[in-house]
User: Fold this.
Amino acid sequence: MSASPRETYERPHRPPRPEGAPAADRRSGIREAALRLFAAQGYRSTTMTDIGAAVGIRGPSLYKHVASKHELLAEIMIGTMEQLIADNTAAVAGTDDVREQLRRSVEAHIRYHARHRLEAFVGNREIGSLEEPDQDRVLARRSDYERRFRELIERGMAERAFGVQSARIASYSILDMGIGVASWFREGGEFTVDQLAYQYGDIALRIVGVRTPDVSGDDQ
Amino acid sequence: MSASPRETYERPHRPPRPEGAPAADRRSGIREAALRLFAAQGYRSTTMTDIGAAVGIRGPSLYKHVASKHELLAEIMIGTMEQLIADNTAAVAGTDDVREQLRRSVEAHIRYHARHRLEAFVGNREIGSLEEPDQDRVLARRSDYERRFRELIERGMAERAFGVQSARIASYSILDMGIGVASWFREGGEFTVDQLAYQYGDIALRIVGVRTPDVSGDDQ
DNA sequence: TCTGATGGCTAATGGTCAGTAGCCAAGATC
DNA sequence: GATCTTGGCTACTGACCATTAGCCATCAGA
Assistant:
């Protein structure tokens, strides 16, 4: 690698925008690449060089678009929780029936975990990688989200619509099922997102003791 | 920190076994410390110095007892899967009734995830940190374990004891619920391990469509 | 045509870390 | 008592990594 003096700059660096990359896309391209890599290799094992390579630039050039590696993680994780909470708010808004609210909440939960597998996956695995103002922010939102399910189930109990031994365990079961979806679901597999959401809705209702239409072994 | 020449060795290093550490315990002490640290900080963020400090020695001294950091992780993860499989085998051995087999399988699953929270937690989060002969070993055992639940549910369907839309989704739900336990359960909290196992057994039976004794809102 | 902003680049910096080398004291064995 | 083994230690090595410094080509707008 001797810098021969006669050819001062053979190929000094790539043109600023080799393909149609409209500059506003750069940042979101970086975010997506980071998400993909964080999901596949973990936050700690992903280097800025990796992320750069995924979008066609060098590691240090990323700092023209993002402040730090940590910022990328924090954005993903806070965004995930905000979206889950917003989806849940929308889900319960359309009805007052506690069974229907639970079904819709669960469907929204499953839909998010199926459609945004990587975000959900990273969001669950990398909580410990967040630094402190951000980790608290994420944990607070996560608590809020859990509380919504627990209180819904408690309301169902009070209205004698649901029957469970512990609302806390029921809500954890339901949430944890959904979290699991993010680790095994693949688009284009045996089920569509809609089918999945509906089935998990049924399962959640069974968990809280609501009789769902019986499914004999062979009608699906 | 100048090494003054007159006091040649003020305190060169600790005595080989300062307290009653019977030398066979050293290795398991290291394994336990590593487990605790891997669970709390993640594998990648835990240094050999951290693990050494947790057992009262320096990082490099660990290599007198273990071959590598990776070996510690692999031992934890393979051991976890082997134990889960062994527990499952024992659980189904005592009965032929498919409902009872499912209940006992789920109870064993929950018991393991509650009693060995850290192993289960690390076992789920650090799969990607395993290097290659070991990652395959763990994934193969994990597949085997999942298959046991799925096939049990399929048998229950064939015998008309269970009614679900998809045995695969039912088995994932049940397993994922248990995995979640490892992340929130604390000994000495609201429930004992036995209560937890029993409640999750009920929930699993509800998921597969078995009528469990009705629980009205206020009888527990 | 000039000029500033943008977004690439390479090189360097400061830090961390797994693992190795080689030293040594205490206890065990002979 | 001499010697071996065990399990500590410090110092070091080689690698990797996030981030900064500073350079420069292209492009948009004046």
Notes: Residues 182 and 216 of chain B are 28 Å apart (CA to CA). Residues 24-66 of chain B form a domain with the Arc Repressor Mutant, subunit A fold (CATH 1.10.10.60).
